[in-house]
Input
Amino acid sequence: MFSIHGTGIGGGIAIGRARVLESRQRDVPRYRLRADQLDAELLRLETAIEVVRAELGALGEHLPEDAPSEARALLDVHVMILDDPLLAQAARDAMRAHLWNAEWAFSAQAGHMAAQFEEIDDEYLRERGRDVQQVAERVIRVLSGSTAGATAAAEPVIFVAADISPADMLSLRAAIGFGIDLGGATSHTAILARSMNVPAVVGLGCAGQLVVDDDWLILDGEAGLLIVAPDETVLADYRRRQAAELLERERRKWLIHLPTVTADGVAVQLQANIERPEEAGRVVSAGASGVGLFRTEFLFMNRRDLPGEDEQFEAYREAVAAMDGLPVTIRTLDVGADKSVPALRGSTPQNPALGQRAIRYCLAEPEVFLEQLRAILRASAFGRARLLLPMLAHSHEIDQALRLVEVAREQLRKRGQSFDADIAVGGMVEVPAAALTAGLFVRKLDFLSIGTNDLIQYTLAIDRSDHDVASLYEPFHPAVLRLVGVTIRTARKAGKPVAVCGEMAGDWAATHLLLGMGLTEFSMHPASLLRVKQEILRADTSRLAPRVARLLATDDPLRVRALLARLVEDH
Ligand code: PEP
Ligand code: MG
Output
């Protein structure tokens, strides 16, 4: 028995046999051609590229109804890479120049391109280097006549690999878990695993080499742990934990039918965060009473062009209509930092998290912003849309944004297009400056939503996507909690709705704390809704409030942790 540590992507515990996928590090045949063989070799490469294009097309056509929403976008990215002249054309040039065989030329060029991505600071773009390698792996697999890639297994297995392409993951229906050597929490593969809702651990380093087919494995997606060939005691312990987890999840399902009210009668709104419009319809059956955050920037990613007004309108309308009168909070473009949109203009800032991101970008590019505002306003005629502005720090940003909302309204009036004239406009509190001047913000806005992910990043000066400082990213740092507390208090005093939509809202260990601060609106990943609801139903806010006030007066992070633990236990 031995264990390997990585980064947990969540999804609980999987226990099963290993299926090790062929490593893309395998030897690529390398030989020089005779000049008279070149044309036939070029044709062989052309044919392989066409076969891969057809494979990707077929995968796209046969996507199941419930396929993760990112799936199609990821397939599109792989087709784009396949069509990129920097890859295919450069490989052909290398074949002509050096008389290399097709596998050699194609893998060399893919390696070259991937290395260029490696040097990019932006984590999202860096991960695209892996997509290039994955496309190359497919082409080389076809060239060498091998079918041994990521093929579906007849029985449920845990797939282990140096790397698994998102496209390959789609054909791995029998997966009960994924253990992958490469990648970080924001890789496409990790994003897909998360939306497939199976346990996954990435960044394992060497599992692809140490694990062999049919090994018994325990994969703990929460702890980020892969246990290979566990002994009877460990296996029995994990089986017990897994059964308890499943039973608990099943039991929680009946909570959907209960009103979301605390033990002392305070009504709470539980809403969902979504990234794509088609997710909206599904969140109601997961227990949400609205969409508290629609991250619209995902519509702008993985493509070379920008979605125009009509395309955006269709996406927003789809979400608003699917929610059938329940609120849908549409956040305007939160581009920048770890979320890059290749089609948008702009320089590469020295420090992207502090650069021209989100509302700063939109105010600098009013035409892009107005196009989105018009699309959101038009969608508001089909249900209950709300408009949310990200990353506000200055009150003049609110003034300018509201002025542009007015311009967009006027443009629609002139066109004779209808919209909800009373659409609520809110702002995100993600920067300490916004939390500390929330009084001014609530006077200008209809509601606030606290983005704890960025609020923690900016309060503690910790890049939220940098592994090297991840241990310092402390959601329960007293400074963070005070900023959350003061924002909630200020909004409530002004009689304006306030929500938390960062990851803290979906962390059940923080539910009592947030309720004790006076929060009554939570928005989170749909999978967390019922676990948080369970805590809400047993909470007594009248008892929590004084204890949370004491906790907020504490400077020592360790004491805060201890008080927090007691807050949850005592209830
Ligand atoms: C946040 O910052 O907490 C938030 C919800 O926005 P995002 O995670 O999209 O930056
Ligand atoms: Mg944010």
About this structure: The chain has a mean pLDDT of 88. The pocket of magnesium ion (ligand 2) is lined by residues 430, 451, 453-454 (CB under 6 Å). The CA atoms of residues 67 and 132 lie 23 Å apart. The longest helix spans residues 38-61.
